[in-house]
Specification:
By secondary structure, the chain is α+β, with helices and mostly antiparallel strands. It folds into two domains: about 80 residues, Beta-lactamase Inhibitory Protein, Chain:B, domain 1, CATH 3.30.1450; about 70 residues. It is built from three helices and eight strands, in the order ααββββαββββ. The chain is globular.
Length: about 140
């Protein structure tokens, strides 16, 4: 019985920890959040690349951000467990304009990728037809 209680406690703890990470990622809003807030929320990135003095890319194990002059312009993340099916995105945003297009040259890489573009939400969803799963969720703010 004691082992069961410990296992339930650990399960709850891991659930809270994983949800808090998703919460911090969700707070990174392109066009409103700066890179220093991303670092304070997610910790130091695993990799940082400066394309030029004003553009940078920061990579964590589960999130990639692009920034211009320290302002985040793109947030790319893996989908949450309930977001892995294309049906979820189609249904969730059914009242918004949607464009579903094949990503050219993805077949050459052995993948069959499609992009669900939600322009009014400033989102792109990358779907892998071969694995029947959403592989990436992208939020952007293009000006």
């Amino acid at each position: 019985m004691k082992t069961l209680k410990v296992n339930v406690f650990l399960l709850c703890l891991f659930t809270v920890i994983s949800c808090s990470r998703q919460f911090h990622v969700a707070k990174l809003i392109p066009g409103q959040t700066y890179t220093d807030e991303a670092v304070s929320r997610l910790g130091d990135p695993d990799f940082t690349q400066f394309e030029n003095p004003t553009k940078q890319v920061m990579v964590w194990k589960d999130v990639t951000i692009q920034a211009r002059e320290e302002l985040i312009t793109v947030v790319q993340r893996a989908p949450a467990s309930y977001e892995t099916k294309l049906q979820f995105w189609r249904q969730h945003y059914k009242n918004y304009p949607q464009q579903f297009t094949k990503i050219e040259n993805s077949a050459e890489a052995g993948e069959h990728l499609w992009q669900l573009h939600l322009p009014s939400q400033r989102m792109n969803i990358i779907y892998d037809e071969t694995r029947d799963t959403v592989t990436e969720v992208m939020y952007y703010n293009v000006q």
